[in-house]
Fold:
Amino acid sequence: MLERLGLAALHRLDPERGHDLALKALRAGLVRGSGPVFTLRLRVRVAGLDLPNPLGLAAGFDKNAVALGPLARLGFGFLEVGAATPRPQPGNPRPRLFRLAEDRGVINRFGFNNAGAEAIAARLAQRPQGVVTGLNLGANKDRADRAGDFAEVLARCGAYVDFATVNVSSPNTEKLRDLQGAAALRALLARVREARAALPRPIPIFLKIAPDLTPDALAEIASVAQESGIDAIIATNTTLAREGLKSAHQHETGGLSGRPLFEKSTRILAQLSQLTDGKLPLIGVGGIEDAETAYAKIRAGASALQLYSALVYGGFGLVGGILKGLDTLLARDGHASVAEAVGTARGDWL
Structure:
């Protein structure tokens, strides 16, 4: 009841103001959590990382790594913060975040607003132990050498995280998605691998892609990712598509996430699973809002999951509810582990 009242109050505010207050509530201890939710059935191993459960927090909620402790107590199996850029960046002008309540969706055009790699690295160095934490790598808008920016952030912050994500799929930084082309992506990943090789310990590198890709472009990405030694692909970021929306905010520019993204992102996920023959771990994100949508992502090919936008409508208590429901669904279908269910319904999405 208290969480529902809190959500109702936040929804009366400007969305970005509401987001900031949610972070402050976490930091002030006003949101309680019981720690990571796990059962033997929910435990997973992805890209060498042992996770108590497959549900992670997607990048973008805690851009500056200011609430790692409280977030770790909400039940997530892992966290991803950022995106971080080499230098601090204010992002795009406000307003830049919009709730599409009728569609259970969100549009954002933040533009990689963050405190910069130096400040974020200092916070990550003090992060709580015991929760797998990763960093989403970004590039400054005014820099031509985008690959250099990704490598610079990894070099500065990589010692303090368990994985890093190369984000070439945000629609809110001009020409960033051009890096998804085969030649540009190959060169970018080579720079990132060089930066990783210089770290005190090697960490897995993930690649986050857009849902708005042609089959040929997706096949190219899958090929480059495999030959470049990428450890996992996150499918997907937000979409530029606007089909079927009802909200008055539907024509705002930016990336659309939440329920309207579910089908598009899950189809991309299944196609990637087929293209990689299930040999490359995939992290499914986009439209997860309950146990059923989480299970559908796994059966389409995801070894792990992430969510963010559903918290806007379901609150932090959603995390535990999804995981308990997912455990029940796995047991119902006779699966002793998440891994047994991965890709079992991939054909339904192809």
Summary: The two ends are 41 Å apart (CA to CA). The CA atoms of residues 24 and 67 lie 8 Å apart.
